[in-house]
Write a structure and sequence with these properties.
Length: about 120
């Protein structure tokens, strides 16, 4: 059985690698995406189970990416975990996201958050 797919949409290379490693430990396949334009391109052709989304991205903001995810019927089952240092902005987006984590976010916190969002059919192996 294949692993669920997670996109880590984060422009900071080190943070993206840490998040990706943590999510892989929670038994996901991960794809790191470093800017908003690439994120929308990849989302147009692949359907992830989980998106870890930074709000402040080059190209297109995380807020616009979240809006596109929520307006795309193909992505209706995609869980969105917003990770940002901007606590004020994240509070505004709480209703549109599945969970919000305010940076700094450590390896174990990310692993546990990702594990909570694993699709149920993946848990019965």
């Amino acid at each position: 059985m294949s692993l669920p797919l997670a996109f880590v949409i984060e422009d900071d290379e080190l943070i993206a690698k840490i998040f990706s490693a943590a999510i892989e430990e929670a038994q996901y396949e991960t794809v790191i995406i470093r800017n908003g334009i690439e994120a929308l391109e990849v989302l147009s052709s692949r359907i992830p189970d989980l998106v870890v989304l930074d709000l402040h991205l080059p190209g297109i903001s995380g807020i616009n990416i979240l809006r596109e995810i929520r307006n795309d019927n193909r992505l209706k089952n995609t869980r969105v975990l917003i990770v940002s240092a901007d606590a004020t902005q994240t509070e505004y987006l709480r209703v549109q996201s599945d969970q919000i984590l305010v940076k700094p976010v450590g390896f174990y916190m990310m692993r546990e958050a990702a594990a909570r969002f694993r699709p149920q059919e993946q848990l019965t192996e």
